[in-house]
Structures are given as C-alpha cells and as structure tokens.
Amino acid sequence: MDNNYIIETNGLTKKYDGVPAVDGLDLHVKEGEVFGLLGPNGAGKTTTILMLLGLTEPFSGSAAVCGFNPSRQPLQVKRLTGYMPEKVGFYENMTARENLQFIAELNNIPDKEISERANELMKAVGILDVADEKVGKYSKGMKQRLGIADVLIKSPKLAILDEPTSGLDPDGIVHITQLIGSLPKRGTSVILSSHQLFQVQKVCNRVAIIAKGKLVVEGSIAELGRKATAGQCEIEVETKQPTPELVEKIKELDSVIKVDIKGDILLVCADTDLRPDLAKIVVQSNLPLIQMKIQQLNLDDIYMKYFQEKE
C-alpha cells in the first residue's frame, strides 16, 4: 500500500450468483482528505464499503485500509475506522449519552475520557440539549446526528459515512456538512457516500463515480470537469455591444471552436484557456472589458454526463 493512501483497492471484485456487484474496482483515497463515493442505487457503493470494512469477502482483487487487509485483518481495520450506515440503529430505550457511553466502553476508551468526549461530540452535532432523552423519541434527523457522534467517539483514523445528512433540515445539512469538512483537521479522513451532490461538492477534495460496479472516473471536481468536457473550456466575455468584427477576430484564434452571442456576453468555447488573448482583442477593439470568467461544470453536470455515458 502507498503510504499516502488510507484506502487502496486493486481489481476489487464481488459477485453474487455469478453477477458482479463490484467489478475490478481501483480506488485510491489519500490520507487527510474527504473523498466522495458517488453512483446511483445498485452501483456497488455499499458492497464496496462492506468489503473495505471486512464485513464481506471479495471474489478477487485486493484492498488495504489504514495499511491492513480487511479480509485477513478485520479487527485492526475496525479499530481504526468508524462506519455510519444509511440506516442508523441504536438502543432506543437508552439515551443518546448512554448509547455513546456504551460504544466508548466497547472501544476501550478510558472512563475518565468518555463523559468529556461524549459531551464535546453531542455539542458538535447539535444534540447536547437532548442528550438525556431516550433515542426512541428522536426524529430521523436527530438519529443521524447521533450516528455521526457515534462514529467519532473513538477518534477513528477513517470515517465512512453513508448518506449522513439524510433526514436533516437545510440548517442541519449545512451544520453537519461543515463538521464533516473539518474532520481531516482532527486527524480523521472521510469517505462520504451521498446523493446530495451540492454538499459533496462543497466538502470533498476528490470523488469517484461508480456505475454498475465499475469505476467510471476518479479525481478532483476540477479534473473531472476537464475530462467531462474533453479538455474544452467555455469562457464568458462580457463587453458592451460586441461588434461583428470583434467576433470574427475571436473566431480567428487557433484554439477557438465556436462563439455564441447572448446580448453583451460572448460565450467562447475553446481547447485552452484563452483569457489573456481574449482580453487583448477586446481592448484593441476599443471596447470595455466588463467581466471575463471560465464557466465551471458543477458536480451535478459532471455526474449526469458520466452516468449517462456509462448507461
């Protein structure tokens, strides 16, 4: 395993009745990052997570998690990782505080540390004011918050979170997303599996998109955007009453593919970033350069493009 990777898989494969649920998956998750694991239902995300945790055996291929083989060394992996499934389960006749205390004791956390750590985490996830209420009375969103505290109580080296913002209101989503983004500073790397692509885009350093058990693409959102557009970029140039002569001069640039006009805005599609050349042409045409920027694909656009292509 590369020392820079907290998770590395090579050709990881899982079959059920001869049908691949995960098919030759190569993943590389760097230590100290929030990594998004994306894909439609049935893509193989949960099966991948279960193999990483040593909860199911791969058919072939290999995986290393925190330097350990989860199939052969599952206890070492479990000691260093925290897992929050999509459907969180607790002892509902116990309070949130009691649930956390129980989990802490199972993980051999010293008694003198448990209370302080539990209070800190319940405050961080926003349930300290209901810490002594039985979990059976909690809403789904409150259970999600407790689930994150449950994962973090043992200060794991790696946290795997499956739909952690499910059931939360908009303020709760923002709050928990910010908390997830702060975890690497606390020494916890994160795998985040979520359908909330806007939130993933805000906190993930890199993402992987999986479809039908296969890796479609992996990288930063900027890298995925460049791949999705085959290296092309769209530059928005705003001036005042652009002339036909200006448009023709821009079209003469070698890397320009096309130019669309929308009022005072020129949308220039090119193979490379031509902003310096475009600025020069506008100024030499005695027109004001009001604004110029590259249009960036968001994660929804990238996801849909790759997923549709895979289909």
Quick recap of the structure?
The chain has 311 residues and is α/β, with parallel strands linked by helices. The chain has helices spanning 45-52, 74-80, 96-106, 111-125, 140-152, 170-182, 197-203, 221-228, 244-251, 275-284, 299-310; strands spanning 5-16, 19-25, 28-30, 34-38, 60-65, 81-84, 158-162, 189-193, 206-211, 214-219, 233-238, 256-262, 265-270, 291-295.
Radius of gyration: 24 Å
Query: What is the mean pLDDT?
Result: 90
Class based on secondary structure composition and strand pairing: alpha/beta
Number of helical segments with 4 or more residues? 11
**Total strand count, please?**
14
Major β-sheet, in short? Answer: 6 strands, mixed
The CATH superfamily of the largest domain is P-loop containing nucleotide triphosphate hydrolases
The CATH topology label of the largest domain is Rossmann fold
Task: Give the distance, in angstroms, between the N- and C-terminal Cα atoms.
Answer: 32 Å
Q: How much of the residues is beta strand, in percent?
A: 25-35%
Element-level helix/strand string: EEEEHEHEHHHEHEHEEHEHEEHEH
Low-confidence region ranges? none
Q: How many structural domains does the protein architecture include?
A: 2
